[in-house]
């Protein structure tokens, strides 16, 4: 079966090293019919020190990738056949919705699976792949790129800024988890994880549209929450539990999936994998349910929001310990007028912003006029005196309201030319709800 890769314009730096950047096309869900894509994916898994899938598990992954519409880039020796050669650089991009506030979405260019072989690092392979990908995003009219990063020091040089964070928590639940306020309404029912097929997507979609800074989730989440990943225990399940909260009318409003940490682990711990809720009652009910599990002393959650909601709900907030916090979504604005005018603004006003961009796309001085919560954004005269200047990475950080321009001014990353302009921009960009990204990708 011939592979269907096409060479893309290779950057001069790759050619100097005898390398070429290729785009691979996936034609079906069969690894045998897509040897170059299958090799690319196995190379990614090895790049992150994971055991690469084979057989049906690899086909399952190819099916998920097709659902996401992933585009694969690989860097190869110039004469190599991608069907028979592992790439020395891997890169994946695809388009999903990004919630920018007020239940509005923009298409975002998601970047993932970036690896460079340890034998080929620091020769500009990442830079070449990133340049090609971001230009393609712009060419296809996608105004913003997004990623979740393995390391914090890599991506600001490409214009990405941290837009929100997540945290890992441990909640002590010996004797239950007393909540403040009225008892939660509705009921919680245990279900088999496979019963979440379809329901999980529906509830995620509703929760996502309530959570600015979240992206539509990738297809792999469906497989994980139904415990049907063929790469784990041949798809026979891994001891995942699931519970759904129903309101008083019997409508599903949220769910939680969780796994027991094992009897060896002390204190005895239940690990939350996913907690998705669409109403305040559902959130309360599912935490009360987790707090009431017999034989369990602690609930842990690796990817919890950092919004203060759980602390506000419980009688004793000291039962909640944050053990880790990390940047989550990194955003790279490519088309300034399209990105800034897509979101709702919380306060009217006018700001002149000078943006620097080492890759060029967002460079310039931009006039932002907000009337009735809608922004009109246009290029200003080059002689116009700006109110604020910042790099495009900082613009990505403040755009959705998750990071304060005033804090970045205090960090000397935003320069104020009119006193008070940073705080004013912060008020204009504020969101009604906490900014959080519910998934990685
Ligand atoms: C979105 C995601 O998928 S996140 C996952 C990223 N992948 C990993 O962490 C897997 C392990 N690491 C790797 O595969 C590689 O080291 C990569 C992908 C991080 C870097 O690839 P390379 O081809 O070596 O990077 P490249 O030579 O193009 O360097 C580009 C720039 O990034 C810088 N850089 C590269 N790696 C790092 C790093 N780990 N930390 C800080 N800066 C870095 C380089 O110094 C260079 O800077 P400059 O152009 O401003 O001088």
From TrEMBL:
<dbReference type="Pfam" id="PF13527">
    <property type="entry name" value="Acetyltransf_9"/>
</dbReference>
<dbReference type="Pfam" id="PF13530">
    <property type="entry name" value="SCP2_2"/>
</dbReference>
<dbReference type="InterPro" id="IPR051554">
    <property type="entry name" value="Acetyltransferase_Eis"/>
</dbReference>
<dbReference type="Pfam" id="PF17668">
    <property type="entry name" value="Acetyltransf_17"/>
</dbReference>
<feature type="binding site">
    <location>
        <begin position="122"/>
        <end position="127"/>
    </location>
    <ligand>
        <name>acetyl-CoA</name>
    </ligand>
</feature>
<feature type="domain" description="N-acetyltransferase">
    <location>
        <begin position="39"/>
        <end position="184"/>
    </location>
</feature>
<dbReference type="InterPro" id="IPR041380">
    <property type="entry name" value="Acetyltransf_17"/>
</dbReference>
<feature type="active site" description="Proton acceptor; via carboxylate">
    <location>
        <position position="441"/>
    </location>
</feature>
<keyword id="KW-0808">Transferase</keyword>
<comment type="similarity">
    <text>Belongs to the acetyltransferase Eis family.</text>
</comment>
<feature type="binding site">
    <location>
        <begin position="150"/>
        <end position="151"/>
    </location>
    <ligand>
        <name>acetyl-CoA</name>
    </ligand>
</feature>
<dbReference type="InterPro" id="IPR036527">
    <property type="entry name" value="SCP2_sterol-bd_dom_sf"/>
</dbReference>
<dbReference type="InterPro" id="IPR000182">
    <property type="entry name" value="GNAT_dom"/>
</dbReference>
<feature type="binding site">
    <location>
        <begin position="114"/>
        <end position="116"/>
    </location>
    <ligand>
        <name>acetyl-CoA</name>
    </ligand>
</feature>
<keyword id="KW-0012">Acyltransferase</keyword>
<dbReference type="GO" id="GO:0034069">
    <property type="term" value="F:aminoglycoside N-acetyltransferase activity"/>
</dbReference>
<dbReference type="InterPro" id="IPR016181">
    <property type="entry name" value="Acyl_CoA_acyltransferase"/>
</dbReference>
<dbReference type="InterPro" id="IPR025559">
    <property type="entry name" value="Eis_dom"/>
</dbReference>
<dbReference type="GO" id="GO:0030649">
    <property type="term" value="P:aminoglycoside antibiotic catabolic process"/>
</dbReference>
<protein>
    <submittedName>
        <fullName>Predicted acetyltransferase</fullName>
    </submittedName>
</protein>
<feature type="active site" description="Proton donor">
    <location>
        <position position="155"/>
    </location>
</feature>
<comment type="subunit">
    <text>Homohexamer; trimer of dimers.</text>
</comment>
<dbReference type="InterPro" id="IPR022902">
    <property type="entry name" value="NAcTrfase_Eis"/>
</dbReference>
């Amino acid at each position: 079966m011939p592979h269907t890769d096409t060479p893309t314009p290779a950057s001069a730096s790759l050619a100097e090293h005898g390398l070429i950047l290729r785009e691979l096309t996936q034609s079906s869900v069969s690894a045998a019919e897509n040897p170059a894509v299958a090799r690319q994916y196995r190379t990614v898994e090895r790049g992150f020190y994971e055991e690469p899938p084979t057989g049906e598990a690899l086909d399952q992954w190819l099916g998920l990738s097709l659902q996401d519409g992933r585009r694969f880039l690989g860097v190869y020796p110039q004469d190599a056949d991608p069907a028979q050669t592992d790439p020395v650089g891997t890169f994946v991009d695809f388009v999903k919705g990004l919630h920018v506030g007020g239940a509005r979405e923009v298409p975002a260019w998601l970047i993932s699976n970036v690896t460079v072989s340890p034998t080929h690092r620091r020769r500009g392979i990442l830079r070449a792949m990133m340049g090609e990908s971001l230009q393609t995003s712009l060419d296809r009219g996608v105004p913003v790129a997004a990623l979740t990063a393995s390391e914090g020091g890599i991506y600001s040089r490409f214009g990405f800024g941290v837009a929100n964070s997540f945290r890992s928590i441990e909640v002590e639940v010996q004797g239950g988890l007393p909540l403040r306020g009225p008892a939660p309404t509705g009921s919680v029912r245990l279900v088999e994880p496979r019963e979440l097929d379809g329901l999980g997507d529906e509830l995620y979609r509703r929760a996502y549209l309530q959570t600015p800074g979240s992206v539509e989730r990738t297809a792999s989440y469906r497989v994980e929450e139904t415990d049907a990943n063929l790469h784990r225990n041949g798809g026979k399940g891994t001891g995942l539990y699931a519970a759904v909260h129903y309101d008083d009318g019997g409508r599903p409003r949220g769910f939680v999936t969780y796994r027991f940490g094992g009897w060896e682990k002390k204190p005895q711990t239940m690990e939350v994998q996913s907690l998705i809720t669409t109403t305040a009652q559902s959130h309360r009910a599912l935490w009360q349910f987790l707090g009431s599990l017999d034989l369990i002393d602690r609930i842990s959650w690796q990817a919890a929001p950092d919004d203060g909601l759980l602390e506000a709900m419980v009688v004793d907030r000291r039962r909640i310990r944050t053990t880790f916090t990390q940047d989550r979504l990194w955003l790279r604005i490519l088309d300034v007028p399209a990105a800034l005018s897509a979101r709702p603004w919380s306060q009217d006003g006018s700001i002149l912003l000078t943006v620097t961009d080492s890759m060029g796309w967002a460079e310039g001085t931009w006039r932002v006029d907000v009337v009735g919560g809608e922004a009109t954004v246009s290029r200003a005269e080059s002689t116009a005196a700006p109110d604020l200047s910042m790099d495009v990475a900082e613009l990505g950080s403040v755009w959705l309201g998750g990071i304060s321009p005033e804090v970045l001014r205090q960090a000397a990353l935003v320069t104020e030319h009119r006193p008070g302009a940073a705080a004013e921009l912060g008020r204009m960009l504020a969101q009604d709800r906490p900014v959080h990204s519910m998934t990685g990708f």
